[in-house]
Design a protein that fits this description.
With 424 residues, the chain is α/β, with parallel strands linked by helices. The chain has two domains: 178 residues, D-Maltodextrin-Binding Protein, domain 2 (3-Layer(aba) Sandwich); 198 residues, Periplasmic binding protein-like II (D-Maltodextrin-Binding Protein, domain 2). 40% of the residues lie in helices and 12% in strands. Strands 5, 6, 7, 8, 9 and 11 form a six-stranded mixed sheet that branches. Strands 2-1-3-10-4 form a five-stranded mixed sheet. Helix 2 links the parallel strand 1 and strand 2. Helix 9 packs across helix 18 and helix 16 runs antiparallel to helix 18. The protein is globular.
Length: 424
Amino acid sequence: MMKKKMLLVLAGVTASMAISAAPALAAGVTLNVTTTYAGEDSNAQNYKDSVAAWEEESGNKVEDSSATSDEAFKSRIITDFEAGSEPDVLFFFNGVDSNQFVEQGKVVSVDEIREVYPDYAANMKDDLLGASPVDGVNYSVPVNGYWEGMFVNKEVLEAAGVEVPTAETTWDEFLAACETIKGAGYTPIAASLQEIPHYWFEYAIYNFQSAETHNTVPKSVDDEYGKAWVDGLNDIKALYEAGYFPENTLTATDAETFQLFTGDKAAFLIDGSWKIGGIAEAVDDIENFTVVNVPGKGDRKTTDEIGGLSMGYYITRKAWDDEEKRDAAVSFVSYMTSDEVVSKFAGVSATALKEGAAPDTSEFNALQVDAIAYTASFTGISPAVQDNLSAAAREPIFADMASIVNGDVDAADAVAAVLEANAE
């Protein structure tokens, strides 16, 4: 699955108040900071501007060693920690890549920071903080991530006499809408099941789980998570048998099915936050398109979405144990994750701000504006569970979805093959 980023940003208060969050902040402190806001990262300039603003306001300096994120960058960071030359503040992955730092006690938890600075990350929803896989404790203040939602061609829906789904739309109501759209001569769902079945896989199995349980790889086909995967795959099979996917969904490319959607021949498209730009480039009237919650059922609310907390700000133990640097590090992270700064970085991405991001929308198109409202509706977010599997382990489902939906391979057997490959 492609790596995706969306801004699920957590921390401080407001940019103008952030520095006061660190009491008795001394001037003249130099912080060593490393981030991935470099190269072609869309927020590289925003990062530079924000650092400069913090330096001017605080009287402190940042010695920056940011670089584009890749395997070499990860190796460099790991080597720095092993050599005792880690930075004071690090913007880094908050999943398994940071396990080593957590296990070695070289980064400080958000809870420990709050014992001294109780307002740290107070403007954020705690349940969206990215907990470490090691112990379930929050060490980082996440910033970048992604969301996946259901894009809608409003012109197709209007022609079929169907209302745009809302946060209250159920799975059964969605199926009824698909039947109506099909009866009107349109394709309900634009998707290439032979090329990118993973969006539908995620939401189909999510419908048999919850935001708290979705990101769990089953241990067997027969446990509660394995059953959810089987049931979800069978729901995709039911959608296929009902004729809600394109006629050539088992042979078409993603580009071909995307063209059905942008060409006013298909109603719905599940994809990621990055797809907004592609839609805008492909259509003449962006106001004919919007993005909404994927209808849910069971324990999953329609407003529980797939999203990722991929990276975040860490304060290292090295900086925390230095009294002067401690204040400066807390001030810096609070500033960089304040409401004002987050809103500059967020664009159409989701955030964990309690009040929601307030980006400058004066030049946003209609779909971008709708995307902001969409992200504000989230009641729960779960990472994509497929990211816990290797490419080889995913193959029995993703590379062979055609065999599952046409009945040549039983869903339970496909899940069993995935779990077996994942255990190797």
